Amino acid sequence: MIVLSGMIGAGKSSLTNILAEHLGTQAFYEQVDDNPVLPLFYANPKKYAFLLQIYFLNKRFASIKRALADDNNVLDRSIYEDALFFHMNAEMGRATEQEVQVYDELLDNMMEELPYAAHKKAPDLLIHLVISYDKMLAHIQKRGRPYEQPQNDASLVDYYHNLLDRYQQWYQDYHYGPKMQIDCDKYDFVDNLADRQAVLRIIDKKLQERKTLDN
Ligand SMILES: Nc1ncnc2c1ncn2[C@@H]1O[C@H](COP(=O)(O)OP(=O)(O)OP(=O)(O)O)[C@@H](O)[C@H]1O
Ligand SMILES: Nc1nc(=O)c2ncn([C@H]3C[C@H](O)[C@@H](CO)O3)c2[nH]1
């Protein structure tokens, strides 16, 4: 299983689609547009942070179990990022200490049940998308989900900056298996075919290196 990580709007769903098609495997997307809790969270984070977190955890766990059925399936966000979001929201006063404790214990419990945990196997590859604030904002504006727009809610500027700051440390600390980064400011894999092919070559090379190591 290959998992993508990175900031809101970095391009995970787009690259998930491109990569799964390239590898002839299945893509598994994060539940966003049909997620009833997400708009509630953005409108009232304090009330809905915990519920949203449980919602995502449940859906992500179900996707992982299905994605593990075949090799090289692609998942558009890793379960390892969930706590990054929740802990930051908790520090902003949007969750109680008890909610954090319940969530962390539940997450640990669920991680122990994942088939790859049982076999001491992490995702085969984590692909982390690195992006600047300005580029990320341009993507968010292009996509146009109303509740993610800073012009509708100025507090999102700080929220996005803080998340972006934490993501780099999160990637440095990720130690569960092979990992790599793609620079989304450099490669426009959505609209530029040459960039897309370059990104796929970089990923193929990494997958090949890993195969060689396994044999
Ligand atoms: N490299 C890119 N070049 C141009 N546009 C891009 C690029 N990556 C993503 N986009 C555009 O940015 C928007 C967000 O991309 P996408 O939905 O793939 O991001 P995401 O990381 O999955 O976001 P989220 O975490 O919010 O689900 C889409 O409109 C997509 O077409
Ligand atoms: N609070 C919170 N916790 C999460 O674990 C989480 N995972 C994703 N998201 C938000 C970001 C995008 O708006 C949208 C799509 O990624 O969903 C999250 N928000």
UniProtKB/TrEMBL annotation:
UniProt domain Deoxynucleoside kinase: residue ranges: 2-204
Active site: D76 (proton acceptor)
SUPFAM superfamilies hit by this protein: P-loop containing nucleoside triphosphate hydrolases (SSF52540)
Pfam families per the UniProt record, alphabetical: dNK
Keywords for the protein's UniProt record, in alphabetical order: ATP-binding, Kinase, Nucleotide-binding, Transferase
InterPro entries, sorted: DCK/DGK, Deoxyribonucleoside_kinase, DNK_dom, P-loop_NTPase
A GO CC term attached to the entry: cytoplasm
Domain of life of the native organism: Bacteria
UniProt-annotated binding residues for ATP: G6, M7, I8, G9, A10, G11, K12, S13, S14
GO molecular function list: ATP binding; deoxynucleoside kinase activity
Family: Belongs to the DCK/DGK family.
Name of the protein in its database record: Deoxynucleoside kinase
Originating species: Bombilactobacillus mellifer
